[in-house]
């Protein structure tokens, strides 16, 4: 008769070896996961907070207004201020980047040097004779209705806007048909980045601006619509302790 204890013993030994190998594999996997987690934590600690968030130095901004609409009493309650609904309005938007002062003075210089430090120039690059009135790409005006600015009709559409800084009280608002480029390209005659390479031949309208001194300082450059009525208002820019504005009306 064959003795079975030896077979059972061999079976048990094999089972133990298999189980031990499985446990070893699991332990090695856990060690690898712990090592990966440790390396990730070390990298996170070495990465500056600013590099993680990547906030732009000049955040994007939009100023908006609606014109030519009317407030009406709806059949059902409108949960708005006054309980009415605005119908038929057309949008006007200014899209721009908003530089911060960060302890600087926004508009400096006297005589022919006034405003020169406000307009960023790039050595060796195209000249920027006017201010982009923002930062980065050109400041843009989008309008769903034709506007009258400085006696000129600006058809509905999208434009670049600039400001010519002559003196502390002599600013000129410029509406231009230039497109907005994402980089400086002297060979592109239809679109520009910022105001680099600007020439007045694409001007659609020019108008003098009313320049006021504010009783406070505005840290972040701000475009705004002020003194609005149903079909008119003023386009205003505020930065540092200066506000400049230009009137407009909706073309009939």
Describe the 3D structure.
This protein folds into two domains: 5-51; 56-250, no CATH class. It is built from two helices and 13 strands. It has 252 residues and is an alpha+beta fold. Helix content is 19%, strand content 39%. Strands 1-4-5-8-9-12-13-6-7 form a nine-stranded antiparallel β-sheet, with no helix packed on it. It has a two-stranded antiparallel sheet with strand order 2-3. A two-stranded parallel sheet has the order 10-11.
What general outline do the C-alpha atoms trace? globular
Instruction: State the helix count.
Output: 2
Number of domains: 2
Q: Which class do the helix and strand fractions yield?
A: alpha+beta
- The side-by-side strand order for the widest beta sheet comes to 1-4-5-8-9-12-13-6-7
Helix content: 10-25%
Distance between the termini: 116 Å
Mean pLDDT: 87
**Quaternary structure of the protein:** single chain
Fraction of residues in β-strands: 35-45%
> What is the H/E string?
HHEEEEEEEEEEEEE
Number of strands: 13
Radius of gyration: 32 Å
């Amino acid at each position: 008769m064959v003795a079975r204890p030896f077979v059972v013993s061999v079976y048990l030994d094999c089972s133990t070896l298999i189980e031990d190998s499985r446990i070893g594999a699991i332990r090695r996997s856990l060690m690898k996961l712990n090592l990966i987690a440790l390396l990730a934590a070390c990298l996170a600690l070495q990465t500056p907070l600013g590099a993680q968030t990547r906030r732009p130095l000049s955040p994007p901004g939009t100023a908006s207004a609606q014109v030519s609409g009317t407030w009406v009493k709806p059949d059902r309650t409108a949960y708005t201020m006054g309980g009415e609904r605005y119908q038929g309005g057309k949008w006007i938007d200014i899209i721009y980047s908003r530089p911060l002062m960060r302890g600087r003075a926004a508009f400096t210089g006297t005589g022919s040097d006034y405003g020169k430090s406000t307009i960023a120039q790039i050595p060796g690059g195209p000249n920027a004779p006017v201010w982009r009135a923002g930062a980065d790409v050109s400041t843009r005006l989008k309008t769903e209705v034709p506007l009258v600015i400085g006696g000129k009709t600006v058809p509905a559409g999208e434009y670049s806007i600039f400001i010519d800084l002559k003196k502390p009280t002599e600013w000129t608002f410029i509406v231009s048909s230039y497109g907005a480029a994402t980089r400086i390209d002297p060979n592109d005659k239809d679109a520009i980045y910022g105001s680099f390479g600007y020439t007045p031949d694409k001007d659609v309208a020019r108008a003098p601006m009313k320049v006021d001194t504010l009783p406070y300082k505005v840290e972040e450059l701000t475009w705004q619509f002020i003194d609005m009525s149903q079909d008119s208002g003023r386009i205003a820019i505020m930065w540092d302790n200066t506000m400049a504005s230009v009137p407009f009306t909706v073309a009939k």
